[in-house]
Amino acid sequence: MDRFQEANRQKWNELAEVNYTSRNSDYGVEAFLGGSDNTRDLHKTELEELGSVEGLDILHLQCHFGMDTLLLAQKGAKSVTGLDFSPVAIKQARELADKTGIEATFVEGNVYDAPSLIDGVYDLVFVSWGTICWLPDIEGWAKVVSHFVKPGGRFYFLDQHPVVLSFDDHAPAPHAPVYDYFHKPDPISFDDTAVYSDETASLQTKRSYEWTHPVGEVVTALVEAGLRIEYLHEFDTVAWKALAFMEPCEGGLYRLPEGMPRLPLSYSISARKPL
Fold it and tell me: What is d(CA 143, CA 209) in angstroms, rounded to the nearest whole number?
């Protein structure tokens, strides 16, 4: 793991701690453990596009502390396996599974190393929200995804649109893009102590590194890795307040203020491995 990935892992160790333990966290771990009616679910887009997962073997890559992994299990998956590079997040995921009594397997490791850490192929490989911007090599990621999709199986992906990454996420008002849309080998560095799930919290680790991956490069990488694209959808909402001037809307999502031009803020891809 290079210094960029190591710095990101350190930051995500801290984020996992806040996201899991803070009572102000949007994740709502206490409600999830207590079986509350207000328990966080998968977002509306995921629920609509995934359809039934009943009886499926599912691999969740970059699973954070596994709440969405366990939600997939609750929705009837035959088996769920989650992988994340943060040891703190994986420890929490295993704890969450134990406390809820939900059967799940959680593996610590870099996503590029997943084929050497996890056996088998899956009916569904699932990747969602805040994932590929932390990765330098989209072609390598796509090969990992394809490796785990069984013939006839499905890959589902949902994340923020790379257009969002062109803007300064802390600027208080709409503004012109400040970062390139197109991918560069060298990452963009950020110094930020904010926590996306809890506006009252702050981190000790400031520095992190991100890469932009244009939609065309993501689609091409998946196709070249042997997957067949079923659809590409774009949305004017995103799962967190990705820009400071965004406003909350239905389904726990965020969008640009009324009166602004509509821009793609997130997108989804469904793809299959040919038989």
Answer: 22
